[in-house]
Amino acid sequence: MVKAVVAGAAGGIGQPLSLLLKLSPLVDELALYDVVNTPGVAADLSHISSVAKTTGYLPQRLFGVTTLDIVRAETFVAEISGKSNPQELVVPVIGGHSGETIVPLFSKVTPSVSIPDDKYDALVNRVQFGGDEVVKAKDGAGSATLSMAYAGFRFAEKVLKAIKGEKGLVEPSYVYLPGVPGGKEIAEKTGVDFFSVPIELGPNGAEKATDILGDLSDKEKKLLEAAVTGLKGNIKKGVDFAHNPPQK
Length: 248
Description:
- The protein is an alpha/beta fold.
- It is 43% helix and 17% strand.
- The mean pLDDT is 94.
- Its EC number is 1.1.1.37.
């Protein structure tokens, strides 16, 4: 069986591409993903008399994997706090996945830890720009591929466990907030529709977005403000690119 997947299936290129794949006798199953309108596109295509079975997925099944930021935060916080096992820590990291858009919330670490004031800024910087550390150590011969592979596996494993019915699985992820239960309120608070927050995973994907923006420290509020500013620019570039892809 051949399964074809189209990410961005509701866009100007994604729709005709999905149509052509639906008509292809080489495709047995066609899975369509986008942040909006995917069920409608899938329903429309499903009326075409061809072999491929078409399904459309909602934003709840679209994740931006930011787990590498969490993995780094756990590791670096454990080093500073003297914890022997980083995996025993839960360090929320919200925002985006590049530079200053990454916001580690050390005030919400469980079990709680104390970060010395003279080490706070350096720790934040290391979480935000940890990839540069690896590139430098590899002397330009590569980037953070191994730790990213681990982070990807960790997230995928949680998704698979959730699909099989395991409860209580939470992992921060960059999602389309209006498309996830609980996300609309977070979008209104932050002023951005795409944002990484702790997500409760379930059989249908993102079951709930958790709002942890309350009771932030003053330093975290400043980090969040800078992150939102950066994300607004990043999101605009992405939306503009999706609506007006470069012509060859």
